[in-house]
């Protein structure tokens, strides 16, 4: 599929019109059907307790002929993409998982779901795991009796009714319209057309995972926070970086959240996507709608870029993890850097809109806008100097640079801009202290995960500062320096604060040299160097 030049130009701004997004979705449809075709054409399907997969393919084809729209929506759902991608990797020897026949057998479950949605008949063996039968796009069936491990069971579909098992353990129901019960859990939505997927084994980023049904209170909390996020996003309708129609999201997968756990702190933000599942995102529920809206924008940007990478190569990546990403604790490879830049140009645009829509305090929005535009422009500059970009990759990076350069000319309140610059210097300084070895030194960097607590702590100017970081955020680097001096000078977090405070107090060539190469810097009057 060819992407029109005007659509690539729109996407290169970091945004994209409805027409451009429709083109990406059509490309993903083509890719999904090609991958399913590659699976269909495999001649090395293992001998399984379910027999040949031919019967499952025939049932899928029959359902498609009856109702192409319903079956295509099922086949294009994110979890089906994760399943087919994972299974093909297993068959190529680059992934592992449970008994292979159960992974192949997910095709049989898919065919049963297709028959139920299309109103056709089917008679297929299906894999059951510990008494659970997931039906893609519909829900999860729990069979009575003593079921352990992976076992086959017979599934019969007729006139919208599903019968599974035999004898006293047989269960019959109408999954498309069946309410919640002890044996049946239907797929639920956080908004019309947006599933909250907590049941499908292939909802995660790669291999199968067990169901993790949210209890009613947690599900209700998800619906509330998603509605709040949709309201925030709906405040802007014109296309542009950071703007998202929530109806474009294909599924939301709760990450590690069940009702028995306390609500996460407002700054807990964990989320991820996979290129196999366009429009899906795994998310730890944030405390409020604004944070969820930012996360939805962030993750949808990853889906957009993954779809672009499926259409044509944007770079020739040697996969060496050596690049600084201002939103990561670890060095990144070039593809990861590009993904980060594309995600955070959306985040930058999101906060730019929040400066005027009243959803958050203007000073907080201004801080995040100023911070993310500085950080993202730094990464785009790194990308632009790489000789590994293809011609489309250079067009994309040039478009991102043009957007960011325009935003850098926009006015931001001085206090928010100062805190943003300080936070940006602190993160880069600490990253280099932890990840790079100083010149002419035999000491080893302390590379490991480290929490980025300053990025969000600097979002609001402290009223009454107490800690060294708080004094630095309050624009009192002298008091900050005094307090940093009382702390462990070898701790990279402390040393980063000392170096940035010194550079703030003594602007000029020395300060620029310290911030450029903090891992080799020696503070005047200090015996500690790294």
Description:
With 530 residues, the protein is of the alpha+beta class. The chain is built from 17 helices and twelve strands. The strands form four sheets. A four-stranded antiparallel sheet has the order 1-4-5-6. The chain has a three-stranded antiparallel sheet with strand order 2-3-7. The chain has a three-stranded mixed sheet with strand order 10-12-11, covered by helices on one side. Strand 2 and strand 3 (139-142) form a beta hairpin. Helix 15 (477-484) packs antiparallel against helix 16 (492-505). The chain is elongated. The model is unreliable at 258-262 (pLDDT under 50).
Topology:
Blueprint: H1 5-12, H2 18-40, H3 54-66, H4 68-75, H5 78-91, H6 100-118, E1 122-129, E2 132-135, E3 139-142, E4 150-158, E5 161-164, E6 171-173, E7 184-186, E8 188-191, E9 194-196, H7 216-233, E10 251-254, E11 271-272, E12 280-283, H8 289-311, H9 334-357, H10 362-384, H11 391-408, H12 414-435, H13 454-457, H14 468-473, H15 477-484, H16 492-505, H17 509-516
Helix pairs in contact: 1-2, 1-11, 2-5, 2-8, 3-4, 3-6, 4-6, 5-6, 7-8, 8-9, 9-10, 10-11, 10-12, 12-16, 15-16, 16-17
Residues in helices, as a percent range: 40-55%
Taking strands numbered 1, 2, ... along the chain, how are they ordered across the largest sheet? 1-4-5-6
CA radius of gyration is 26 Å
| Largest sheet report | 4 strands, antiparallel
The tally of beta strands, per DSSP, is: 12
What best-fitting shape do the alpha-carbon axes yield? elongated
Number of helices: 17
Report the uncertain regions. Answer: 258-262
Q: If you average the pLDDT, what whole number results?
A: 93
CA-CA gap between termini = 52 Å
Structural classification = alpha+beta
Percent in strands: 5-15%
Please write the string of helix (H) and strand (E) elements: HHHHHHEEEEEEEEEHEEEHHHHHHHHHH
């Amino acid at each position: 599929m060819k992407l029109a030049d005007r659509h690539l130009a729109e996407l290169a701004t970091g945004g994209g019109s409805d027409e451009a997004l429709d083109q990406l979705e059509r490309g993903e449809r083509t890719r999904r059907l090609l991958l399913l075709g590659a699976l269909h054409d495999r001649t090395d399907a293992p001998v399984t307790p379910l027999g040949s997969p031919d019967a499952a393919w025939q049932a899928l084809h029959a359902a498609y002929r009856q109702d192409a729209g319903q079956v295509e929506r099922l086949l294009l759902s994110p979890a089906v993409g994760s399943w087919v991608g994972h299974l093909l990797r297993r068959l190529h020897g680059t992934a592992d998982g449970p008994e292979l026949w159960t992974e192949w057998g997910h095709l049989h479950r898919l065919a049963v779901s297709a028959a139920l949605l299309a109103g056709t008949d089917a008679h297929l063996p299906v894999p059951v795991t510990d008494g659970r039968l997931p039906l893609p796009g519909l829900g999860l069936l729990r069979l009575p009796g003593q079921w352990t491990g992976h076992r086959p069971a017979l599934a019969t579909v007729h006139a919208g009714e599903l019968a599974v098992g035999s004898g006293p353990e047989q269960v019959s129901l109408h999954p498309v319209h069946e309410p919640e019960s002890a044996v049946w859990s239907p797929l639920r939505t956080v908004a019309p057309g947006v599933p909250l997927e907590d049941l499908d084994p292939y909802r995660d980023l790669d291999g199968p995972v067990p169901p993790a049904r949210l209890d009613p209170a947690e599900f209700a909390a998800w619906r509330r926070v998603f509605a709040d996020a949709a309201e925030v996003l709906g405040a802007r309708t014109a296309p542009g970086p950071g703007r998202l129609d929530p109806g474009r999201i294909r599924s939301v997968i709760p990450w590690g959240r069940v009702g028995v756990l306390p609500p996460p702190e407002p700054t807990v933000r964990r989320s991820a996507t996979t290129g196999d599942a366009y429009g899906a995102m795994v998310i730890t529920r944030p405390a409020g709608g604004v944070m969820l809206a930012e996360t939805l924008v962030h993750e949808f940007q990853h889906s957009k870029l993954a779809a672009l990478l499926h259409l044509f190569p944007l770079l020739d990546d040697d996969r060496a993890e050596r690049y600084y990403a201002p939103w990561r604790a670890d060095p990144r490879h070039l593809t990861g850097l590009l993904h980060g830049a594309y995600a955070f140009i959306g985040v930058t645009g999101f906060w730019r809109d929040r400066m005027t829509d009243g959803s958050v305090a203007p000073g907080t929005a201004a801080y995040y806008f100023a911070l993310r535009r500085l950080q993202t422009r730094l990464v785009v500059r790194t990308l632009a100097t790489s000789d590994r970009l293809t011609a489309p990759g250079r067009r994309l990076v040039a478009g991102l640079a043009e957007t960011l350069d325009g935003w850098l000319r926009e006015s931001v309140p001085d206090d928010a801009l100062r805190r943003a610059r300080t936070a940006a210097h602190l993160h880069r300084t600490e990253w280099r202290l932890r990840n790079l070895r100083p010149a002419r030194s035999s000491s080893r960097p302390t590379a490991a995960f480290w929490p980025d607590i300053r990025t969000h702590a600097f979002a609001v100017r402290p009223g009454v500062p107490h800690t060294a970081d708080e004094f630095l955020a309050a624009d009192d680097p002298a008091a900050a320096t005094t307090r940093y001096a009382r702390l462990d000078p070898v701790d990279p977090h402390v040393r980063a604060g000392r170096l940035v405070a010194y550079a703030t107090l003594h602007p000029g060539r020395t300060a620029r040299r310290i911030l450029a190469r903090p891992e080799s810097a020696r503070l005047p009057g200090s015996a500690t160097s790294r």
